[in-house]
Amino acid sequence: MVNNNNPSLDEQVAFYNFYWSDLKPFGDYKLQRIIELLKILKKLSKIKKNPRILDFGCGDGRSVPVWSLVGPADGFDLSETAMKEASLRYPYINFKFGDACNSSYDSNKYDIIISQEVIEHIIDQDKYIEECNKLLLSNGFLILTTPNKYYFDRLKGGNYSRQPIENILYPTELKKIVSKKFKIKSCHSLIQAKGDFGIYKFISNKYVQFLVKRLGLSNWFYELTSKKLLNLHLVIVAQKK
To answer: Considering the entire predicted model, what is its pTM?
Structure first.
């Protein structure tokens, strides 16, 4: 299913009820994102003690118990099926289903919102960011990850995800949307990517990769591509204005 037809909310719900109907093992990319988000949460927990956390678009909900190691965490997703199953697996966590652009949560409820690979599946992305802002307490934080359109436009075949809405963003587009309601504290990219065109022909070149590794510069090279926003996923940390 592709995103060009502006699927209705009911069509999206039906898709994700099926999508999350069975548990799939976490892939390497998912695990790397979880590790990165935990690092960010650890830093923010020094500012927000015992933070109340919302995983806003939590999928099957399996990441939420991980965040609860940092502070009390809730999960929210469009899929009723996923949230009911998550509630059975983790009865000590509050899961809720509904439209993320109209969540019906009380305003000023959370210290931190985690939005992991969600905004690209939203039609009204501005409304989603407004909802995140509304749910956060004063000076609360949004941690957001999303695929990097700059990279996927330079990959043969482009974006390989096939969910009902696939509205991936360039770094400049993402920053513009988020900055309407938030102060961006940091922006970097995660998971080194192998592309086919433009600068990725250099980054992905096997001789370049061999030389970087041989000189012991792998960490430096990754940090460089991260800061230059060339990697697979964009990661933004932003604070409520």
So the answer is: 0.94
